Amino acid sequence: MCLIEIFQMQTTREFTLKTKRGNILKIVREHYLRTDLGCGSDLCKQCEHVNDNVVLHADRNVKSELFNFPHYLVLDTNVILHQIDVLEEDAIRNVIILTTVLNEVKHRSSAAYKRLLDIIQDKSRGFYVFVNEHHRDTYVERKPGESSNDRNDRAIRFATNWYDAHLLMAQERNGSKNEATRVVLLTDDAINMQHAEKDGILVANVYDYTKGLTDHPMLIDKYAQKDIEKENTSHAIYPSHLSANEILTGIRNKRLLQGAFQACRENFLEGTVTVEGYEKPILIQSRESLNRAVDGDIVAIELLPEEQWSVPSEIVLEETELDEQSDQTSDGINKNLTAVIATAAIKSNKQPTGKIVGIIVRKRRQYCGVLQPSLLANATRHIFIPADRKIPRVRIETRQAEKLNNQRIVVTIDSWPRTSRYPHGHFVRSLGPLGDVDTENEVILLEHDVPHSKFSEEVLNCLPKMPWIITPEDYAARVDLRDINICSVDPPGCTDIDDALHCRELLNGNLEVGVHIADVSHFIRPGTALDKEAASRGTTVYLVGKRIDMVPELLSSNLCSLVGEQERFAFSCIWEMDTEANILSKRFHKSVIKSKAALTYEQAQILIDDSSQAGEIAKSLRHLNKLAKILKKRRMDNGALVLASPEIRFEVDSETHEPLEVEAKQLRDTNSMVEEFMLLANITVAEHILLEFPQCALLRRHPRPPPANFDPLVKAAQNQGFEVKVDSGFELANSLDTCVKPTNAYFNIMIRILATRCMMQALYFISGTLQKDQYFHYGLAAPIYTHFTSPIRRYSDIIVHRLLAACIGADSTYTELLDKQRNEELCHNLNYRHKMAQYASRASVALNTHLFFRGKAQDEEGYVLFVRKNALQVLIPKFGLEGTIYLNSLKDDTRNITNGVVFTFNEESYTQRCGDVEFHAFDPVTVRLSLDSTNVQHEKLIFQLVKPYIKGFSVELNEDIQENESSLAAPSPQKRSKKLKKRKKREKTENEESGRIKHKA
Fold it and tell me: Mostly located where (predicted)?
């Protein structure tokens, strides 16, 4: 077909652009309109010859009470943005996606756009993209004075009208005797609906249409309520939010500040907002000041006058605790909390305190949890309890409550009216039965936003074809190191081996040391689907007995893994050292290696310790171990920190995936040996890429914590008679070494655990975005650092490999590699993914600890980690498990009586006294652990004090799989009955109020 036939019309679009000098520049763009764009329907024979494929099929219609005839759907932009959960269901079929809408969705929400593309690619669903903006009969010009949004709405209506007429004409030409198929516009915009009705278009809102799908009555559960601020303030619980214009004006004139809101895990009435330019985060306290912010939201805050600044409370407070008390108003709750805070504020350094006045960007995400059964018969409104304690409970509507009662479910928050204590949301899907290992692992991955879907066909098509061989050209382009005695040292069961080592004596008496890293960048080329997927995932995530790979298994466990006795591509960093570990020279090259052994840490340690072993691998390991000890001492002398965190290892059943045994991880000299040479390689490579690319090297820094961060550590050490100096990393390291108690072997480890919690997060960054004095890595006491040694499981290392390859001429650069702004955005994603992967791994340990205690009771040694005003926080080292034992309620913040047991808190010494027993931080205790499974929705890990034993007193650890919570023993039947009556009354009132609001909306 010639161009004259295809492009029947050409129009021009004019724009004006103001230059920096104030000149007006006129831009004219040609806009071609075509006639070869088909409608995609099997009803139209005229378009058949120009359709790439027929997507809209007449036999795929759904039954609707609203439109009881065959029909196609056209969606406006907001329907896709707000109702994507509904659209993902198979009930919605034969849908026309206009490019006007597709482009708007792409511009406004990348997450919704990606989900929409996934639906479109599923051909069975019948979602057809119609290029209305380039079709001769559907393109509309923007009118003078017409807004872009109004023009797009008009374009959607115009295209819908054309489609309906086009298909009616096609069916008439075909002589079809069946009921005519029509085109329906779905929109939740009242004005758009009015215009559509005026134009004679069949139109409906999503709620009415979804509710009318007779074969899918439960689909309405997934309908998302839009944000609606009510004018009626008679029942308002929260202050109103400022408008977008008021927020923008306030930020410009510096009356308002903006930042990311972080909810407090220990106290749901507290949170902080990190604001650029402030050393400490801005403290937010009380329900009204939090003003409906959800963890992760970008918020606008107003700083309070300095005389109203406060300090974080020492209270551990759960929302469930308030439910068990009388129906306090938020004012009453705040008064109790404020009274406690005021006392502490007199003695402490106050920090900037503010209140949230608006939500700039909602953290739109899905949450996992359980449904709290309603006490009202046949109720459709229910409370959803998230697994994450930082997320508030959510009010949802569902007609499937009985079915979902023992299920883990997923919910999305839609809005939070001023008149509701809880946000409103909708049911998304069920994950599976409570307590099931696969279900709970899915919860962990979803809660921590870990991408874990199967790799797409597009990604898998980027993998090398099997069988894969090394060609003569490959050998010629690399340094051949196959004859060197290289070996890897890893944990048992490791299949993604990305590093190996060697050390050999040179004729001049020096030593040659090599670190050889899997050359993943050879297989993952820039810009491919595989590269984009790896960049999005950012890192491999390790759960107990399960691994979520960053790259497909063919690479991670096979072609890239430096397994024993197999030839593999590597990127080698080689030094010449003297016997005192001084570096005399270094070199980098792409290589081919053949590892002589894939050892575990234990196997390597045996080779080193057994003097009868005289093989080359044993000699190499002994040299490496000796050099590593020198390197480590040198680092320690420079002020590097040795911190601690409780780490455990589970033995998991290969079939059921349930934990069989648990033990603390053993660290050997070989662990430290491998660590030292990986650190050295990372530092060496960082120096080299920075020299060549001073503006765009990807590095990793660890900011020095502000002095205030160390207050809990300093205070805890002082209470035990030790002084911890924090003026420098060197002083801190020396101070931690002196914190030793002969009577408490675990004391030094706990002090180091506290020190770890005072640290800032280590971050990836691009060299040209910061001053050189900010490159410093505080924990390692290294002026420069990067990640080079784990490219199988970290995308940052792949970028560093590409930079290093460009430095030595082994590969060429490309535009994106040197794009500072683009790589800065990449670093933000990598930092986020790295943090979420760490949290997910910890949550997996907590889950398996929970499963391990099913059907058993066990006494374990523990330690009091923190003494709070109303609680003890206890650490069980063997399991790395931390539990909160609640002691005092808000009614009396110094004394409480439970089962005849009185606890008294001493604010001076930070101790809790019960009779003759006094609890201090770091005190050893023996705790009996057992699992209470009487409530299938909330199994509780019971913590009972055994030593020191307190008669009549036991505590429970309420384990929500990902977080460890606790409460006092179950309330008496009388109290429980009273609580249920009040809850039932509150539910009835709130449901009636919700119904009124919905009716008005």
Answer: cytoplasm
